[in-house]
Design a protein that fits this description.
Keywords: Membrane, Transmembrane, Transmembrane helix. This is EAL domain-containing protein. By secondary structure, this protein is of the alpha/beta class. It is globular and about 50 Å long. Bound molecules: ligand C2E and calcium ion (CA) (3 copies).
Length: about 280
């Protein structure tokens, strides 16, 4: 909480120093995190309007040997700044592909795993088909091609579409060409518009949780969600609402024709083991 007065100035400079030290330490520690097997993925179910599980979003966690569990919001940015996100991102994809095989065994071959992809992973490729795309398409274990049946969905943030470089533009075209589905994450938080969605062959829009959470008490949020869903459908794009926590939100969103729901109301992100035995039992 921000407070005025002299004390806040002193505290600010201390916490700024702390933040810098923390940043340097984390970037250093990130170097060994993959080889030390400190990362793992958790999975959050995404539910359709009939109450069935249709996807799981893979979310990274870092079990730091001294600092304990570190959520992605506290290290992804540093990994992006240091370039380590490339290696981490490739690890996420290979892990998600392995999980997909188990998940499909339980939920059937239409279920997908959605992975978060940093803009840097798309812009940092060296010509031709990027390593990243390659990793989506090939299967290291010689198992059935994970992508052949649209196994993975790539989640990008809408900020990415607003400053497209050549490589990213190319990557998005490659996705289209290879039939890799794309979800636009955090929709409504940036300044992009549905025009971007139209121009870039996006498959899903994810309404940001900040809007979903306002559904309970702000009528402007109601109109906004309704309008997003309406226009997305006109463009042939399916809508996922994230951060759904209450039955009331479920009712409103489904009333507006929202296609998919994701949030604590249905499940927190869970281990793969838990995901494989998850029973969706909420009334839809
Ligand atoms: P995101 O992609 O928008 O993911 C949704 C976040 O909302 C997750 O936080 C999830 O745990 C949380 N969430 C889900 N349902 C609810 C709910 O009902 N209420 C509330 N309050 N929160 C909910 P998480 O796991 O801490 O991830 C934070 C962000 O870190 C993600 O936001 C994503 O941008 C990034 N991230 C996570 N995993 C990866 C990854 O593997 N690679 C990259 N590049 N980024 C990742
Ligand atoms: Ca996401
Ligand atoms: Ca999001
Ligand atoms: Ca986010």
């Amino acid at each position: 909480a921000k407070k005025c007065g002299r004390d806040s100035v002193r505290r600010f400079s201390w916490s700024l120093k702390d933040a810098l030290v923390q940043r340097i330490e984390l970037i250093k520690d990130l170097r060994h995190a993959i080889s030390n097997q400190e990362f793992y993925l958790v999975y959050q179910p995404i539910i359709d309007s009939k109450g069935s599980v249709v996807k799981f979003e893979a979310l990274i966690r870092w079990q730091h040997p001294e600092k304990g569990l570190i959520p992605p919001d506290q290290f992804i940015q540093f990994a992006e700044e240091s370039g380590q996100i490339i290696e981490i991102g490739n690890w996420v994809i290979s892990e998600a592909k392995k999980a997909l095989i188990d998940i499909r065994r339980v939920y059937g071959d239409d279920v997908q795993v959605s992975v978060n992809v940093s803009p840097i992973q798309l812009s940092n490729q060296q010509g031709g088909i990027c390593v990243f795309l390659e990793s989506l398409l090939t299967d290291p274990d010689g198992l059935k091609d994970a992508q052949q049946k649209n196994g993975l969905v790539v989640e990008i943030t809408e900020h990415l579409l607003m400053n497209l470089d050549e490589n990213t533009r190319k990557a998005l075209l490659d996705f289209r060409e290879k039939g890799i589905q794309v979800a636009l994450d955090d929709f409504g938080t940036g300044h992009s518009s549905l025009a971007y969605v139209m121009n870039h062959d996006i498959d899903y829009l994810k309404i940001d949780k900040s809007f979903v959470q306002k559904l309970d008490d702000e009528s402007s949020a109601l109109s906004l969600c309704e309008a997003i869903i309406l226009m997305a459908h006109k463009l042939g794009v399916l809508v996922i609402a994230e951060g759904v926590e209450t039955q009331h939100q479920v009712d409103l969103l489904l009333g507006y024709g929202c296609d998919y729901l994701q949030g604590f109301y249905f499940s927190r992100p869970i281990s793969l083991e838990q995901a494989l035995t998850y029973q969706q039992n909420k009334v839809i």
